[in-house]
Amino acid sequence: MPTYLLTNRGTPKDKTLEGARKTHNQTSASGQAVARSFGDLTHSVYVPVEGFGTTTNELDLLLVDVWNSVEGLNRFFAKLRGNEQVSPIFARNDPAVWSPAEGFDSYHFQAPYGKNERILGLVRGVVRSRADAQAMHNDFMEDNVGKARLTGILSHEAYVAFTPPGRPESLELLALDVWMDVSLTAAYYQDAEWRDVFQKIFVEPPSVSTWIHPVGDWAEW
C-alpha cells in the first residue's frame, strides 16, 4: 500500500511553546476527524534537539504526518483554503510531500524495553542523480547498519519529493531516522565517514536536523 510523508516545519504564530501547543491542539480538535477521513494515518509533533542540528533562535515546530492518499491530502488542504485556514499554526512554514524512494535500503528494529525516547533525524538535500545516490546510499547503509544500531538507531527510511505523474522525477532526497537515545544521536551525524559519503551523495551539504517530542500534552494520533 503506498504511503506519503508530509513534513511541515515552521515558525509558529505564538511566541511561546505553550501558546503554540494550545493553538495546535485547538486546530487538531477541529480538523482531526476530517484529516483522518481523507487518509491521514498518523500525526506527530517535534521541536529541535537543543545544541545540535539546523536550529534558529526562533521557536521551531515540525509536524510529521503519514497519508495513504495524495488525493485525500490535496482535498484536505483545499478544504482548509476554502475556510481561510491555510496556516492556523504557522507564521512561516515549509510543507513538503514525500514518496518512498524506491530501491533505497531501509530498516526497522524493535526498541529494547525501557528505551522510550524517540528522536527524529532528518537529512535533506538535492542529489546529483537518483541512481548514483541509491548506489552510494545502499553501500553505506549495508556497511554501517551495525554501527548505527550500536548508536541507538531504530529505523531508517529514504524519501524523494513527490512529483505528479508525467512530471520529471525530483532529485530532492530526504533521509528520516528514528533514534532511542538523544545522547548518542549527534555522534552518528558527526562521524567523518558518514559526512564524507553524504557529501558525495548531495550536490551541496545537506540540511541535517534532529527533533524530539515537546513537553506538554500535544494532540497526536
What report would you give on this structure?
The protein has helices spanning 17-37, 70-82, 130-150, 182-189, 192-201, and strands at 4-12, 40-48, 61-67, 90-100, 107-108, 119-126, 153-161, 172-179, 207-212. The chain is α+β, with helices and mostly antiparallel strands and 221 residues long. It has two domains: 4-99, Alpha-Beta Plaits (2-Layer Sandwich), CATH 3.30.70.100; 101-212, Alpha-Beta Plaits. Strands 1-3-2-9-6-8-7-4 form an eight-stranded antiparallel beta barrel, surrounded by four helices. The longest helix is centred in the first third of the chain and has 21 residues, at 17-37. The protein is globular. The protein starts with a strand and ends in a 9-residue tail after the last strand. The model has no long low-confidence stretch (mean pLDDT 91).
Q: Strand count, sense and closure of the main sheet?
A: 8 strands, antiparallel, barrel
Unreliable parts:
none
State which percent range the strand residues make up: 25-35%
Helix count equals: 5
Structure classification: alpha+beta
CATH class identity of the largest domain: Alpha Beta
The residue fraction in helices comes out at 25-40%
- What is the fold-level CATH name, i.e. the topology of the largest domain? Alpha-Beta Plaits
**CATH architecture assignment of the largest domain:** 2-Layer Sandwich
> How many domain modules?
2
Give me the count of strands.
9
Task: Measure the end-to-end span.
Answer: 20 Å
CA radius of gyration: 18 Å
Order of helices and strands: EHEEHEEEHEEHHE
- Adjacency order of strands in the biggest sheet: 1-3-2-9-6-8-7-4
Rough outline? globular
Average per-residue pLDDT, rounded, comes to 91
